Amino acid sequence: MGTKQDSGRATISEIAREAGVSVPTVSKVLNGHAHVAAATRARVEEIIAKRDYARRPAKRSKRAGLIDLVFPGMGSEWACEIIEGVERVAQEAGYGTVVSSLSLDGSRIRPWLANLAERKSDGVLLAVYELDSKQIQRIKSLGIPVILIDPVGKPGPELMTVGAANWDGAFLATEHLLKLGHRRIAMIGGREDLQCSGAREDGYLAALRRGGVEADSSLMVPGDFSIESGERGTASLLRLKDRPTAIFTGNDAQAVGAYRAARSAGLRIPEDLSIIGFDDIPAAEWIEPGLTTIRQPVVQMAETAMRALLRHLEGDEELPQRIELGTELVVRGSTAAVS
Hints:
Elements: H1 4-7, H2 12-19, H3 23-30, H4 38-50, E1 66-71, H5 77-92, E2 96-101, H6 109-119, E3 123-127, H7 133-141, E4 146-149, E5 160-164, H8 166-179, E6 185-188, H9 195-210, E7 220-221, H10 227-238, E8 246-249, H11 252-264, E9 274-276, H12 283-286, E10 293-295, H13 298-313, E11 322-325, E12 328-330
Parallel strand pairs: 1-2, 1-3, 3-4, 4-5, 5-11, 6-7, 6-8, 8-9
Antiparallel strand pairs: 10-12
């Protein structure tokens, strides 16, 4: 007869014995208590995963009335719009919002998880952030649902995501430039770890193929969604012997950088160089000339994610794995027919 260990299933006491800890310590890990040494917690979590222990989410007897909203940084207009959308829906439903900024290197994740367990938040929204499977597992062991907004990497099927139609938006942007007669169309990319960056690049390339224009690798430069990377990328593109007549930037911040570089090179926008962005941040309307861009429904994305979280808390188990909101072309003064 096979033992429980042979079948791969285990009891708490067997996990405790294998980890060299007490049963109460394993129980604390399973229930998400903060007061367990990091090395011990990691060892126990590893054994739990290896032995395929069927842990039950903690039951929430009452709600704290709090939602955690987590960013890798909050120094952008995009983050402000996400906060606006989440707080609007949360306040209407009687929830408060705890906003946290965690560094991308993960150095502050452990104390944040400990604080999350202490305050017993009702749900977590992760905006442009990535937790590993063990960290997600720990949050779920607390009985706390997680939804990702514009996710990093490729989240597993167990996590719901909300984002924009990035491929479609990039296709629209590039198609707009093609219709204006441009053929030397450059692109400044975004952060490589973000799903949206890859989708925007794919949309750009698809539009070129549809328009019968062969992609030129010299016209594709990397970026990180910052103004500085837009300025650097544009400067390098303008040094090419056969420079582009139009540039599609991965976001509007990079477009602002592109404006700077074009003016430093003595070029007029759009007479000498057309520029199109992505996001439609407030600044896109008042910079001169107004920026042609792809409107990404950022506030609506945040509202949608928050409403989905509320539905989850109300017991709705029919939520889709992915919700994708449409994008639209907004034509202003930064693009014109090729001269």
